Amino acid sequence: MKLQTFLAHAGIASRRKAEELIAQGLVQVNGKIATIGLRIDPTSDKITYKGRVIKSAQPHITYLIHKPVGIVSTTQDELGRQTVIDFLKKQLGPKVKLPRLYPVGRLDLDSNGLMILTNDGNLAQRMTHPSFEEEKTYRIRVEGEPSDKAIAHLERGVLLKEGMTSPAKIEVISLEGEESILEITIHEGRYHQVKRMMLRVGYPVIQLTRVRMGKYSLDDLKGKKYQLIEPK
Ligand code: URA
After folding, report:
1. Amino acid 185: pLDDT
2. For residues 170 and 54, what is the distance between their CA atoms, to the nearest angstrom?
3. CA nearest to 184, candidates 232, 135, 148
4. Quick one: which of 73, 108, 175, 178 has the fewest CB in 10 Å?
5. Mutate to test the pocket of ligand 1, among 193, 198, 201, 209 (most ligand atoms within 8 A of CB)
6. Strand locations in the chain, DSSP E?
7. Topology (CATH level 3) of domain 62-129+217-230
8. Among candidate residues 124, 119, 121, 146, the one with its CA nearest the CA of residue 134
9. For residues 108 and 138, what is the distance between their CA atoms, to the nearest angstrom?
10. Closest protein CA for atom 2 of ligand 1
């Protein structure tokens, strides 16, 4: 949206007056003095007026969804495949008007499970930035029967090409010779992290489902495809 519209919605001044404030150099976007008409993203840009951070007046909307396999976890796809946003819109039907929502983190095309869609930039940052150490748990079906040594290796941290992963927490659900089921909890979000960790210790992932992100769990959906969690 345009900067002056944002300032007006946030209650700083009328749109006209907001333009004057911008022209006077009193408004900064991401640390730089802004110009009239500048387009901003209220969920990610930092807007200040006279040095004070202006919060978006737009209410936060957050949905949990159960992403199925075969849907991309981005907002747009250059190959025209269905995205998580298309998926949610389809579930809600044409009558529900959604603001711009963003997926929090990624989930592979061939994986399923919990995703958060929100316009709350702080929530997205908290969930994905490694410094917050928000845990994500994945239930994985893997080839073979992971040895105690492999599990201890995952729990210590695994060397991937870009460096060591943080220690993972592992819960063994079932060991069945040809295929086994584990729950792995990590707080980083590197590209294909779980699959690469499991490959590194010799037990490739066959299927991956994200079951938890911080305090949110797939169980919160109670078997449904989506759940509005904010505003309640
Ligand atoms: N790790 C993976 O390998 N894939 C995902 O989709 C999420 C975590």
Report:
1. 98
2. 42
3. 135
4. 178
5. 193
6. 27-29, 32-33, 47-49, 52-53, 62-67, 102-103, 112-118, 136-143, 159-160, 163-164, 169-176, 179-186, 205-213, 216-217, 226-230
7. Alpha-Beta Plaits (3.30.70)
8. 124
9. 12
10. 192
Please determine, looking at this structure, whether the domain spanning 135-213 carries the CATH number 3.40.50.300: no
Average pLDDT in the chain? 92
Length of the chain, in residues: 232
**Number of DSSP helices (H) and strands (E) in the chain, helices first:** 6, 15
Q: What is the SS3 assignment for 121? A: helix
What is the Å distance from ligand 1's center to 226 Cα?
20
Q: Give the separation between CA 186 and CA 208, rounded to whole angstroms.
A: 14
User: Best substitution site from 116, 138, 140, 210 to test ligand 1's pocket, by max atoms within 8 Å of Cβ?
Assistant: 138
**Tens digits of per-residue pLDDT, 94-134?**
999 888 898 998 999 999 999 999 988 778 888 888 888 89
Pick 3-53's CATH classification: 3.50.50.60, 3.10.290.10, 3.20.20.20, 3.40.50.300.
3.10.290.10
Domain ranges of the chain: 3-53, 62-129+217-230, 135-213
Task: Report the alpha-carbon distance of residue 158 to residue 132 in Å, rounded.
Answer: 20
Fold match between domain 62-129+217-230 and domain 135-213 = yes
